C-alpha cells in the first residue's frame, strides 16, 4: 500500500522552533535519504514508544544538531495527511538552549527572520504566517 488511509493512526512528531532574542528562528533542510529530501522544516522527529513529546524534542535536537534544549513552550499542533504518512505535529518554541547548531546529519540549516527558504514541508507552510504574527506581537521587525 503506498497511501496511508485517513484512518491510519497518526504519527506524533515533536518539532522545535529555536527563537533568538532578535526573533530569528532555525530551519533545517531534510537530508538525502529521507522522504521530502531537500525540503525545509523546523528540526524535530518522531516520538518513540514510551517517550514524552518533550523528551522526543530534546533527543532529536541532540541527534540532529548537537543542541541541548533547556526549556520550550508548547505552541500549536497541526495534523496533516501526506501520501506516506498521517502526522500530528507538536510545535514548541524554545528560547533557552545550550550549544551552536552542528550539521550532524549532513543537513543544511539557516537562521531566518521572515522565513524565505523554499520549499517548505506542506504542513509547515501555515506556521510561517503564524510566526510572522507572533513576531509582530513581540515587535520583532522583519528582515
Ligand atoms: N521535523 C519536522 N517534521 C515535519 C515538519 N513538517 C512536517 O510535515 N513534518 C513531517 O513530520 C515527519 C517527521 O518525520 P522524520 O522522518 O523527520 O522523523 P525522524 O527524524 O524521527 O526520522 P527517522 O524515521 O528517519 O528517524 C515527516 O513525515 C515530516 O514530513 C517540520 O516542520 N519539522
Automatic annotation (TrEMBL):
Domain (Nudix hydrolase) ranges: 6-134
EC number: 3.6.1.55
Reaction(s) this enzyme catalyzes, per UniProt: 8-oxo-GTP + H2O = 8-oxo-GMP + diphosphate + H(+); 8-oxo-dGTP + H2O = 8-oxo-dGMP + diphosphate + H(+)
Needed co-factor(s): Mg(2+)
Protein name stated in the entry: 8-oxo-dGTP diphosphatase
GO biological process: DNA repair; DNA replication
GO molecular function, one term: 8-oxo-dGDP phosphatase activity
InterPro entries listed in its UniProt record: MutT-like, Nudix_hydrolase, NUDIX_hydrolase-like_dom_sf, NUDIX_hydrolase_CS, NUDIX_hydrolase_dom
Pfam assignment, any one: NUDIX
EC category name: hydrolase
The keyword Metal-binding is annotated on this UniProt entry: yes
Organism whose genome encodes this protein: Glaciimonas soli
Annotated CDD domains: NUDIX_MutT_NudA_like
Similarity remark: Belongs to the Nudix hydrolase family.
Keywords annotated in UniProt: DNA damage, DNA repair, DNA replication, Hydrolase, Magnesium, Metal-binding, Mutator protein
